[in-house]
What we know:
Elements: E1 3-4, H1 5-12, E2 15-17, E3 23-24, E4 26-27, E5 37-40, E6 57-61, E7 73-77, H2 80-93, E8 100-101, E9 106-107, E10 112-113, E11 118-119, E12 124-125, E13 130-131, E14 136-137, E15 142-143, E16 148-149, E17 154-155, E18 160-161, E19 166-167, E20 172-173, E21 178-179, E22 186-189, E23 192-195, E24 201-204, E25 209-210, E26 215-216, E27 223-226, E28 231-232, E29 237-238, E30 243-244, E31 249-250, E32 255-256, E33 261-262, E34 267-268, E35 273-274, E36 279-280, E37 285-286, E38 291-292, E39 301-303, E40 308-309, H3 310-345
Parallel strand pairs: 4-5, 5-6, 6-7, 8-11, 9-12, 10-13, 11-14, 12-15, 13-16, 14-17, 15-18, 16-19, 17-20, 18-21, 19-24, 20-25, 21-26, 24-27, 25-28, 26-29, 27-30, 28-31, 29-32, 30-33, 31-34, 32-35, 33-36, 34-37, 35-38, 37-39
Antiparallel strand pairs: 1-3, 2-7, 22-23, 39-40
Amino acid sequence: MEFTAKQIAMFIGGEVAGDDNAAVSTFSKIEEGRPGSLTFLSNPKYTNYIYETEASIVLVAKSFVPEHPVKATLIRVDDPYDSLARLMTLYESSKPRKHGVHSLAFISPSAKLSKDVYVGPFACIGDGAVIGDGVRIYPHCHVGDNVELGDGTTLYANVCVYDGCRIGRNCTLHSGVVIGADGFGFAPTSTGYEKIPQIGNVVIEDNVEIGANTCVDRATMGSTVVRHGVKLDNLIQVAHNDEIGAHTVIAAQSGIAGSTKIGEWCRFGGQVGIAGHITIGDRVNAGAQTGVPSHVADGATIMGTPAVSYMDFLKISVVQKRLPAMLKRLEALEGELKTLKESLNK
């Protein structure tokens, strides 16, 4: 399906500079642009590519002033990245959707499927499960007994949702996600560790996206909760009885120990480790590989292990680079002090 620069500009509220009839049918990176594709310029580091890209249309900021002639048609917008996201969402929604229940899928007679559902081959839906309108369940997924999947939710191949868990509307769970496995609960005894039954569940609210091979454990009692709008990257561990606040985003390989509450609109980099039984406030930013051992106040920006404020982390980083030279000076001063003491004692 092709769209012209004029049509695109009308959809995103942009202004065309160039050929209104320039047409595109796909997207490309600006440095790999080819005829018939649309790209964007948001980061100034890529400005040089706009003068040589073969892309037919480029989204640019309204403030962009070219220093050399540009062959591509430009569409000027307030925010090129946001406009690109809107166009890619439109493009994705125009793709044909899978429908129907495959003959090789197993669906319990007591499960309830709403309209316009897709269930792929070798998927299994358990007793009493409730599947909402427009849900897509790809091959080899397991949906346990009494699971609820909200309207428009997608489970890609090999997702496993354990019994009793609830997932809201318009959620996306990528391949290998496990929702509701047992929390890591064991009581030490004289002969080893005795398993503590995990009888709670997981509740995932609306518009949540969870990356491949991420695990959200069921609660010991009550619910592990992922609030609406949360985005979790690949390979994240969310432990039992955690609560992740609305619109929080967490990058890959992060881990959250049990019974921790994370506020709204937080942003965590990759490999962040968070201790259990603590509270992290709203709008907290944690840099990559931050270790968080204790409570964090609203609005804090932290880095390091153990975590310190962002400014303290930068100061510590500067000092660390100077430590070898400082050690030499200290050793020299100690030598001079020793010599001075010896001369005074004579």
